[in-house]
Amino acid sequence: MSQLLPNFLKQRAYLTPNRTALIFEKEKWSFSDLYKKVEVYAKKIASLDIKTQDSIAVLLSNSPQTVIIIHALQQIGVTAVFLNHRLTANEMVFQIKDSGSKILISESQFENKLEEITQLYNDLSIISEVDIEELDTKKNPILNEFRMDDVCSIMYTSGTTGKPKGVLQTYGNHWWSAVGSALNLGLKEEDGWVCAVPLFHISGLSILMRSVIYGMAVYLYEQFDEKEINQQLLTGNVTIMSVVSTMLYRLIDDLEDKRYHENFRCMLLGGGPAPKSLLESCLEKNIPVFQSYGMTETSSQIVTLSPEDSLIKLGSAGKPLFPSQLKIMGEGKPLELNTLGEIVVKGPNVTKGYLNREEANLSNFKEGWFYTGDIGYLDEEGYLFVVDRRSDLIISGGENIYPAEIEEVLLSHPMVKEAGVTGVNHSLWGQVPCGFVVTTQSLEADELINYCHERLAKYKVPKQIYFVDALPRNASNKLLRRKLQDLI
Amino acid sequence: MSQLLPNFLKQRAYLTPNRTALIFEKEKWSFSDLYKKVEVYAKKIASLDIKTQDSIAVLLSNSPQTVIIIHALQQIGVTAVFLNHRLTANEMVFQIKDSGSKILISESQFENKLEEITQLYNDLSIISEVDIEELDTKKNPILNEFRMDDVCSIMYTSGTTGKPKGVLQTYGNHWWSAVGSALNLGLKEEDGWVCAVPLFHISGLSILMRSVIYGMAVYLYEQFDEKEINQQLLTGNVTIMSVVSTMLYRLIDDLEDKRYHENFRCMLLGGGPAPKSLLESCLEKNIPVFQSYGMTETSSQIVTLSPEDSLIKLGSAGKPLFPSQLKIMGEGKPLELNTLGEIVVKGPNVTKGYLNREEANLSNFKEGWFYTGDIGYLDEEGYLFVVDRRSDLIISGGENIYPAEIEEVLLSHPMVKEAGVTGVNHSLWGQVPCGFVVTTQSLEADELINYCHERLAKYKVPKQIYFVDALPRNASNKLLRRKLQDLI
Question: pTM value?
């Protein structure tokens, strides 16, 4: 039988009703305020034609209303499918259909996108926040307990095949992720966590989950603005913030000679190891940086490096969270220390699989271990070094970009015979995607770039297209993406 | 399938090898030091004729050696049966046999008791720490993972029947108890927990479990000595201490005009609500007292009251830990607020049952809820008030005393016809047991007291015996222990 825990938000509102749950601009909600709002919404959403563990897609900005909707869905055990704002209507419709969502909750600022979506998927029922207010109220739909195996959220991620896969994140995954993080970072009554990363990413959603599990305030921002955030970090109200390198650079630049309040205790840095220069700047400014390694499939960080170790173990991702485990595999066997192999992880924060992807599940999960596809090694003290992200993943300003997905689009162009995509370094975004194509006849780069723009979210569109005679491949004709750069 | 987590101590020694694990007198062990010692012991104990989930009884004092043995048993998945030092040999042998233990690990200071035990149970193999050192070494017995459903420890507790029952405490129970406590009290890197309560009680053992799960130092004391502890609490090295009222009185008395270091953040008080005068003294001396309600079956606290609420909600036990739930039942139905009924609890920290006590398990566990037998109510804000401990439990200096167990001994005397035992207030111990008997012929109180001394641990022996004509009983002839006091 799956483990049961009390409904997170309901329990939190019972235990510490007066603690601050959420701060947004000039507004503030206690857990009791939040629960009251959420209860109303949950009862209204429950009046729709849905039942427990059905999916509803959400296309929503970082706002208190979104927080309320996310919690409302949890109250009635409905799975939220989080759509990245930056996707094209085509990409969104794929995820909506793949997840079996018949309802999309969204808001007026996405009006244009919603029109496109409607054209592509006529039967979809699109509901705005305003519509929710006008729904009927169902009696007693609120769950007293969450079943840890039930799916709380679905976020799509791509892989080598190019088709995005829905990662099933259970209530248990979120719970254990929050607990593992608390055992690592500690937990203080005065903690407050800045959320200026998108709620549709696991980095953002995991902050909301921690908030109710810990009884901790979230300082929510619609967008990342270094001036606004720095102002907050100087006050001492907040103690922790989730960032990617790009954000940290901008914060430090803007900070100049000022120093954060001494209460501020953790920059949780995701999206790959930080460059030495960035760590040194942080050290100089007394900003404690916890680097981390994680993915949608591990419900945020699974490995972290403490600030004390950040320069001694430069480039390392650190050690696993307490409930999680780590090993390096090669040719079906665990490898010795200091030997490169596939990073394999295990823990109650790791997804139970991809939605309706039997094949991917069979190849990625073995005996309770998840094969990340990332390449790395453990040093003699057990610190993880990530050498290559899976599927030659490109991380651009914190967004994951999968070359295969872009290659698929390039290859769909009638004059493209072969296509390869890789990341090239970029001073602001870390990396940006670049395309390499073999064509059947002469073609302009701009034409291909426009072609991509129509089919891909903007951040996925190659910044450069190189026309080449052949792509680097191995003996079995597999594309060697890592060697693409040599063609420049 | 039962959930797996990494072997607690092994994982802790990998993640934070250099953090302090244990401090005893002038000695100090890091988690790495501790694990190395434990590994040696585990391999030696594994060479005995035992297998995973067999039981070994332990009769050990609060010492580093005991900490090592407790962890060593966990490393090889052997269940530890904790014997209270103060029990008679007869009582101990009952627990050893009932738990199916063929081996008892003990130490020279219990020599006399061990001789008595040997006389009563010839086949028992008694091993001292010195003997362990001389055992063979088994290869690779150390578990990589703990199965959360496996039984880690057994502690005996009595009930209405008078026969002690073995409470099965799983690895999961200890894990969730530690996590629930951290979510309530917070968790700081500088935390250190004073353990001056016995390791054979759940109050002591739970500190050891938290230590490895949190990566926190335990300041271990063989005995409670207010002067020594106060000295420690003044330094700022320790931040939390587990106490019962008796200990807290003695600490405060000895403290005089001095004040604890500002790092000290929590007196975790077990064993019933504190009197107002004690809370007021603590408030005046700036000592934050967290009152708690719990039992062996809940693997330590399950309900706590924060210092802010301690005077507003005087006499309340507080609210449940986050993963746990609470309700008040009467006649098979949950009761309204402010209505007296049986306290019923649920949570992953609650025991899965009593060893080999099918009947007690059937009557105490229903639909995942544990019926404590304690009487209480919830106020309008959901705070628990415990009005009567189960089976008229007497709590004397932190030890649980069950009247039924003493009554059974009194009734076994040839001249005693009826017997009732209740607690009467005592300035130092909180309560002490007093006996009320109806005899067939005239008898001296001293004779009965001596009779008890031969059969019961000293703290259980009635301090007074009253000879009466009849005992107060209800219509169905059930003894009304609460009315015994009126006979004085």
Answer: 0.88
Q: Is the pLDDT of residue B273 over 80?
A: no
Predicted-complex ipTM score? 0.87
Instruction: State how beta strands B20-24 and B217-220 pair.
Output: parallel
**How far is it, in rounded angstroms, from Cα B53 to Cα B99?**
11
Min Cα separation A189/chain B (Å): 7
**Residue-level pLDDT at B282:** 92
pLDDT for position B159: 60
pLDDT digits (tens, 9 = 90+) for B290-316: 999 999 999 999 999 988 787 788 888
The number of beta carbons lying within 10 Å of the beta carbon of residue B34 is 23
Percent of chain B with pLDDT over 70: 97
Topology of domain B393-487, per CATH? GMP Synthetase; Chain A, domain 3 (3.30.300)
Domains B175-391 and B393-487 share a fold: no
A3 interaction partners in chain B (CB closer than 8 Å):
3, 348
B15 CB-side CA count, 13 A: 30
Domain ranges of chain B: 4-147, 175-391, 393-487
Please tell me the CATH superfamily of domain A4-147, with its number: ANL, N-terminal domain (3.40.50.12780)
Q: Which two tokens stand for residue B351?
A: 């025991």
Query: In chain A, which residue's Cα lies nearest the Cα of B183?
Result: A214
| Nearest Cβ partner for A5 among B4, B182, B323 | B323
The answer to whether B44 touches B137, Cβ cutoff 8 Å, is yes
Residues of A in contact with B368 (CB under 8 A): 4
The verdict on B187 touching A (C-beta cutoff 8 Å) is: yes
Which residue in the block uniquely carries the two structure tokens 């008595």?
A: B116
Q: How far apart are CA B350 and CA B173, in angstroms?
A: 6
**Residue A43: helix, strand or coil by DSSP?**
helix
Contacting residues of A for B379, CB less than 8 Å apart: none
Query: Which of A32, A171, A174, A183 best probes binding to B when mutated, by most B CB atoms within 10 angstroms?
Result: A183
What does the pLDDT read at residue A308? 79
Q: Report the residue from A5, A183, A214 with minimal CB separation from B213.
A: A183
Tell me which residue of B15, B52, B231 sits closest to B152, measured CA to CA: B52
Class of the CATH domain delimited by B175-391: alpha beta
B312 in reach of chain A (CB within 8 A): no
Rounded mean pLDDT, B443-460: 92
